[in-house]
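Job type: complex structure
Entries:
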Amino acid sequence: MTENAIVVEGLEKRFDGIAALDGVDFEVQPATVFGLLGPNGAGKTTAIRILSTIIDADGGRAEVLGYDVVRDPVAVRRRIGLAGQYAAVDPNLTGRENLEMIGVLGQLPRPQIAPRAVELLERFQLTDAADRPLKTYSGGMRRRLDIAASLVPKPPVLFLDEPTTGLDLTSRNELWNMIHELVADGTTVLLTTQYLEEADHLAGQIAVIDGGHVIANDTPEQLKSQLGDTVVELGFSVEPHAERAMEALAGVGAGRVEREGVDIRVSSDRGARVLVDVLRALDAENIEPATLSVREPSLDDVFLALTGRHAEPTGEGDDTQPNDASRGAA
Amino acid sequence: MSSTSVSVQLEATRDRKIPFSLVRDTSAIAHRNLIAYRRIPQLLVFSTIQPVIFVLMFRYVFGGAINTFPIPYVDYLMPGIFVQTVTFGAIATAIGLATDVKSGLMERFHALPMARSAVLTGRTIADLTRNVFVVLLMMLVGFIVGWRVHTNVFGVIAGGLLVLLFGYAMSWVFATVGLFVKDPETAQAAAFPVLAPLVFASTAFVPSDNMPGWLQVFADHQPVSATANAVRALTVGGATAADVWASILWSLAILAVFVPIAVRLYRRAV
């Protein structure tokens, strides 16, 4: 049986009359990572909160492992782990106490709780800090504990809401490895992110979400094939220069060339090779850019390609809760 | 919980297991909140300093001007102090829950397969446990400043239980406040205007005889007065039944109103 682990159909949610989700559909296969990619306010967190039975949708339906999130919320809660922006830990408890509390409340059989906490503390490299209250933890340690907490009841489905926001590079890479391991063991992961790189690295399938709509649902490879793998950005001092450069670059068989004011963006799937072409073309016309950068495509590039506009936060209800400031970093 | 669907061979054990237990979840939450009191003793210290100052102020500053003949003022005062202490102490319930909402911990609780009301029962039971300690401490303070029990040890125990019951009821009032405002500072600010008339326009510190008629009506018919009068009757002596029943009924009525409201608000608190 290859039923989907998560099914979302026509999901709608409004906050104060503003649509945070406006008919969202997607499906997640078991033992895969599904990425919800979008800017702040796109509706990613709202989708996760509905799937984890924290809030109810206004329309549509959602299922986790065959259980409807509205009709069978307890069955869903028994099968999910949640970590991220709004899941949290108790600052007055130690790391171990936090995990053991979640073990009890997650209905893990009593004899399994303490060993499970030890195992997760070890895995997230928090053993040395296990018996210190969380107040003494750094932001990254807290975040790791938060994710460890979501794993205590061994959930077959894991929701990670922007799991690497605020993590340093090392912790981020560790977390990425851990997600790969979990999926190899059969866990289904739904993660939200603002970073194309992260979605690309982790997810087998990516839904790009914008203003409560899914505007693309593809494998990372297909998404990127629309973007190329390299972006060259050129800045000019005055618009006439930029216009001339556009003409010069028209001949470069590199992919898409777009201009916004004095800035030009060239996307290509030819790797760094495109830079040579670009510079040759400009040099032939004797044009010098004021600034130049080469980078991998970002969420913003995905948005430009899909919608023709930048990925700006829409700031509606969803990912920007008023009480953010008090959270996180120690 | 109907298992409408198929697909779950992943862990057949998940449904076979014990239904979650309100007692187990409540004790886990209560334990967690009591740890906070142990780790941050300031919480306890500051919540007891205020009533101690009240004892000293009323006993030595205002007391001389208050006529409670034939009872010595300190014996009149202390039962009022006990009630005042647990009443103001209930603000901690509001602050604690509002903090959990704000920190995001409440979201995590909502996504766990735990008993729905355990976050509230655990919180209020932790605050009840704290009150046991605080009331005992205030009794000790009372003895130091000359409070004397004219009845017997059972009167004191019964009085203590009445105070704790009333404090527990007030915890649910403030659970409601905390879940409604969802912000610790706001919860604290919202509490005083509600509590001040309840505690000061009462017979907790002064008899109602010299209040204006309309205020006297209020002061004689509200739960702080009822409980203070009951504890006074139990420790000074005299007829007790009417006051004790009034206090118990007030506390039960408050619980009957606020427990369902708080539980409903908890569902919507995130």
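Summary: The interface with chain A takes residues 1-11, 14-15, 17-18, 20, 24-25, 28-29, 31-32, 35-36, 39-40, 102-105, 107-114, 118, 182-183, 270 of chain B (CB under 8 Å). Residues 15 and 109 of chain B are 20 Å apart (CA to CA).
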